[in-house]
Specification:
Elements (H helix, E strand, L loop, with lengths): L9 E7 L5 H9 L17 E7 L3 E7 L7 H16 L3 E7 L6 H12 L4 E6 L7 H10 L3 E3 L8 H11 L18 E5 L13 H12 L3 E5 L4 H7 L6 E4 L4 H7 L6 E3 H9 L2 H8 L10 E6 L10 H14 L4 E6 L12 E4 L7 H13 L4 E3 H8 L11 H10 L1
Parallel strand pairs: 1-3, 1-4, 4-5, 5-6, 7-8, 7-9, 9-10, 11-12, 11-13, 13-14
Antiparallel strand pairs: 2-3
Bound molecules: iron/sulfur cluster.
Length: about 400
Amino acid sequence: MNSVPNSERRHIVFVGRRNVGKSSLVNAFIGQDLCIVSEVAGTTTDPVKKAMELLPFGPIILIDTAGIDDVGELGEKRINKTIKAIASADFAVVVVEAAVQLSPKEWELFNYLNKISIPYVIAVNKIEFGVNQLLLSEIKYLNATHFEISCAENVGIDALKRRVVRMLPNEIGPPLIGDLVSQGDVVVLVVPIDLGAPKGRLILPQVQTIREALDEDTIVIVCKDKELRSVLYNLKSSPDLVITDSQAIMRVAADVPDNVKLTTFSILMARYKGDLQTFVKGLHTVEKLQDGDKILIAEACSHHAQEDDIGRVKIPRWLRLHTKKDLQFDVSSGLEFPNNLIDYKLIVHCGGCMLTRRAMQMRIKEAQILDIPIVNYGVLISYMHGAIPRVLIPFEEAAGQWTIAD
Ligand code: SF4
C-alpha cells in the first residue's frame, strides 16, 4: 500500500478555525497521534500529511492544516498554505465548533469551497458542550452534509468516516492508455537511458504506463531508442502502439512506420493529469511570440538541475531557435505560480508527475482565468521537433483541437 505514489491517492484536507479540533479529528481518523493536539490555538503550522488506507475506499492522504483565522504576518503565510492545500485536495472535512455560530472566516471558507467545486462534509465537533441551534440552521442554509461528533469522547467519528468514504470522488480522469489499447495488442515503450534517467529505476509515468498496459492484457515490450529498429524488425507484424520519451521523438518518429500509432509519455500524462486539448491550443501561441516576450517555465517540484536541463536549458534553446526571437525565460518551482503570472505570454509546464490531477487542473485553471496560454514540456517538445499532429492521432479530440487551432 505504501508504494502507491502520493499523486495517485485521494487527498482529504481538514480545515477550519484554530482550536476547533482539526488535529484531534485527523488523529481519530488514523487511530494514532500523528498531529500535535493542544488547547493552545495555532499549534498546527504547515500542513501535515499522512498517507493511509481508508477502508473500503483505498489509499488516501489526510492533510491537517493551520487555522483559517490565523493571525499576524506568519499567520497570513500559513493561511495561504492552507488555501493551497484546499485547492489541490479532492475532498474537504470542515471542522466547526458545535457551541457557536459560523464566523465570517468560515462563511468565506464555504464560499471558496463552492467556488472551486470541492466536495465537503461539515464535522460539528465538541458536542459535549452542547449544540447551537442557530449553527444547525446555518448548515441547513448551506445545504451541506454534517455530522455531530466529539473527538474527546469518540462520538460520531465512525459514521463520519463511512460518509467520507461514500462521498470521496472515485474516478479522477481519463486512463493513461487503457482506452487506447485492447487485449492482445503489442505496445512498444521506448525508454532512453541517458544521463537524465534516474539511476536504477524507471520514472513514474513509465512505470504507470507499463502497469496499465499489463492490466489491459496487452503485450508490452520495453526498449531503449537505440534498439527500437531491431525490435520493430524482429516483430512478425507492426506493433499497435509505440510510446516514447519526448526527448527521443525525432529519432523514434523516423524509425516507426507512418501507419503505426505513435505518441509520447508526456502526452499520455498531459491527458491523464491535465488537459491535453488546452495544451494543444496553447501551441498556437508559439508562432506569435515576439522579441522580449516572457515565458514561464513552471516545474511543480524542485530537483537538482542537470547541466543540459530540459526546463532551464533545452526548452529555452529550442524555443529561441524555433521562433528566432529573443525570448526571456523565468523558472518557477513548487506548488505556486509566481505572483506576476500576468506578465507571461506563455507558460510551459512540466509533466506534473508529482501532482494530483486536481492540483494540475487548478494550475491550468489559474492560467485560463488570466488568459495565459499553457503547454507542457512534452507537447511543446513534440511540436518543436515536427511530431505534431502525428503524436496526437491516437487522441481524436486533441487532434481535432490541433486542426481548429491550425
Ligand atoms: S515532471 Fe514536474 S512534478 Fe515531475 S519530477 Fe519533474 S518537475 Fe517534478
